[in-house]
Design goal:
This protein is an alpha/beta fold. It has helices at about 10-25, 55-65, 65-75, 85-90, 185-190; strands at about 1-5, 30-35, 45-50, 80-85, 90-95, 105-110, 120-125, 135-140, 145, 150-155, 160-165, 170. It has a single domain (about 1-190), classed as Rossmann fold (3-Layer(aba) Sandwich), CATH 3.40.50.880.
């Protein structure tokens, strides 16, 4: 499996480690490449769009021509995991003119809806497809406030969606890469198989 991490900004090394761990748990080899330029995404089997600053990520992937390649990746049914700012970038509506949303997940999102950096928190979250709760890290997390008909809500906090699946895209408001638990990466990239604990 060749995994591309959109590396223009955000938690690149952490996602690379998590996808390697998810693949290793299945005894599958994984090559992880950092994507900073156009021409790499078409060779990837799976993609990660990490957290960071959504306006910066959006601007840089558009400038480099990576945005169209991500859309084509999803159109081919290839998996994507988008986390925190990645959720905002992949949404239908980021409610911010500075973000050129990719429209890959039929949701609208409020940026930093859970508060500022000082309002960051952790919570054990029940996620569809995982047997045990996932310890989720929320840092300036967005809020999914409108969900389209084709979107499956995988997890909520206080009744608010924090993880969704839309076709081959799994998107979370939290940072699964900041834990030692690779089950969310496993869920995103091996959806047809039972999740390995």
């Amino acid at each position: 499996m060749k995994a591309g991490v959109i590396a223009v900004q955000g938690d690149v090394a952490e996602h690379a480690a998590a996808v390697r761990n998810a693949a290793a748990a299945r005894d599958e080899p994984a090559e992880v490449v950092e994507v900073r330029d156009a021409g790499i995404v078409p060779d990837c089997d799976v993609l990660l769009v990490p957290g960071g600053e959504s306006t910066t990520i959006s601007r840089l992937i558009r400038r480099e021509g990576i945005d169209a390649e991500i859309r084509e990746h999803v159109a081919r049914g290839k998996p994507v995991l988008a986390t925190c700012a990645g959720l905002i970038v992949c949404s239908r509506d980021a409610k911010d003119d500075r973000v050129d949303a990719l429209g890959l997940v039929d949701v609208s999102v409020d940026r930093n809806a859970f508060g500022r950096q000082k309002d960051s928190f952790e919570a054990n979250v029940s996620i569809t497809g995982l047997d045990d709760p996932f310890h989720a890290v929320f840092i300036r997390a967005p809020l999914v406030d409108e969900v389209g008909a084709g979107v499956e809500v995988l997890a909520t906090v206080d009744g608010r969606p924090v993880a969704v699946r839309n076709g081959p895209v799994v998107a979370t408001a939290f940072h699964p890469e900041l834990t030692d638990d690779a089950r969310v990466h496993d869920l995103a990239f091996f959806p047809e198989r039972e999740v390995v604990a």
